[in-house]
Amino acid sequence: MARHAVLAGVGGYLPKLIVTNDDLARSLDTSDEWIRERTGIRQRHIAGADETAAMMATEAARAALRRAGAGPDEVDAIILATSTPDQAFPATATRVQAALGVARGFAFDLSAACSGFIYALAVADGMIRAGQASGVLVIGAEVYSRILDWQDRTTCVLFGDGAGAVFLHAAEGPATPDAPGVVSTHLHADGRHGDILYIDGAVGQRERPGTLAMNGAAVFRHAVVNLAAAVEEALAANRLDRSAVDWLVPHQANRRIIDAMGKKLGLAPERVVVTIDRHANTSAASIPLALAEAVGDGRIRPGHLVLMEALGGGLTWGSALVRM
Ligand code: UT7
């Protein structure tokens, strides 16, 4: 019997502390005007000492389970996308598993930078289809504030912290564009461009935990080209016209990239979910956080077709098409 994955609930967590562009401009050679015009960002949430990746992921997961009307006993897998785990191991996913009181199944972290949530969703979808898991928490959780060089105005103004989660469960029958569920996912990577966005160090390198480095203009060019192709690929694979898409929930890296993808789909601006103004770029957390907001306020409703896309360090990129 064919199986597919249904998105049953979504939730998010944002740190309490809000830092505005003006706050940053007090100690950095930048301005609210530059940041807003080039990126669309007005503010970001920054994690406090107690707001670890595991803590934020657990709160987001609890919210997703609540929305799904599911208990921890229905979770048999946790896949957590992050580039900023609290520890190299154990995986942050296992910390979340323990905090939720889940004592069965499996849990692991996945590293695909800003595309992490799309990658994790694709892996979860595949495992559900294969019968390997039936209730999967897919989480993106990031504390980029801990890996930023706060003196580097070309990167530190762009990112924020947070976590988002979805709960997927198995349903009978094949995935189709008309039935609720994950319709398709498409993943890509091109490691030849690994040096345009990376962390310059690692836990394994003594005295050099690393900070984020980026050639913003190069990443921008790849994002516009590759994400446009990813959108086309998702539609063509399902023989859908762009008019079938109700919502675009894009990775939130730059307002100009988001607007270009909305235009590509011919979507009215109010059909594109934008959180970058308030959240900045929360990497793997940005898509589930945006989804949680738009489902929570009633914009995205059951039956709507949602296209998600992201590009990040690696380079990695991809798309997911989901009927809510
Ligand atoms: O999520 C993962 C994927 N990441 C992305 O998709 C990010 C893609 N890239 C971008 O979003 C944009 O390239 C940025 C927002 C990072 C930069 O925008 P840009 O229009 O490409 O600016 P730029 O890097 O070409 O810099 C233009 C100028 C430079 O000054 P000069 O050399 O022209 O004198 C920078 O030094 O702006 C300067 N600048 C700043 N000025 C004030 C760079 N950062 C700042 C700043 N405040 N924070």
What does this structure look like?
This protein is of the alpha/beta class and 324 residues long. The protein folds into two domains: 3-172, 3-Layer(aba) Sandwich (Peroxisomal Thiolase, Chain A, domain 1); 181-323, Thiolase/Chalcone synthase (Peroxisomal Thiolase, Chain A, domain 1, 3-Layer(aba) Sandwich), CATH 3.40.47. Helices cover 32% and strands 26% of the residues. It is built from ten helices and 13 strands. It has helices spanning 21-25, 32-39, 53-68, 92-100, 116-130, 153-156, 216-237, 255-264, 276-279, 286-296, and strands at 3-13, 17-20, 43-46, 77-81, 106-110, 135-143, 161-172, 181-189, 197-199, 212-214, 247-250, 305-312, 316-323. The strands form four sheets. It has a five-stranded mixed sheet with strand order 1-7-6-4-5, sandwiched between helices. The protein has a four-stranded mixed sheet with strand order 8-13-12-11, with helices on both faces. Helix 3 crosses helix 4 and helix 7 runs parallel beside helix 8 (255-264). The longest helix has 22 residues, at 216-237. The mean pLDDT is 97. The structure holds oxa(dethia)-CoA. Oxa(dethia)-CoA binds next to helix 2, helix 6, helix 7 and strand 12.
Write the layout of secondary structure elements.
Elements: E1 3-13, E2 17-20, H1 21-25, H2 32-39, E3 43-46, H3 53-68, E4 77-81, H4 92-100, E5 106-110, H5 116-130, E6 135-143, H6 153-156, E7 161-172, E8 181-189, E9 197-199, E10 212-214, H7 216-237, E11 247-250, H8 255-264, H9 276-279, H10 286-296, E12 305-312, E13 316-323
Parallel strand pairs: 4-5, 4-6, 11-12
Antiparallel strand pairs: 1-7, 2-3, 6-7, 8-13, 9-10, 12-13
Residues 30, 34-35, 38-39, 114, 153-154, 157-158, 216-217, 219-220, 223, 253-254, 257, 281, 311-312 line the site of oxa(dethia)-CoA.
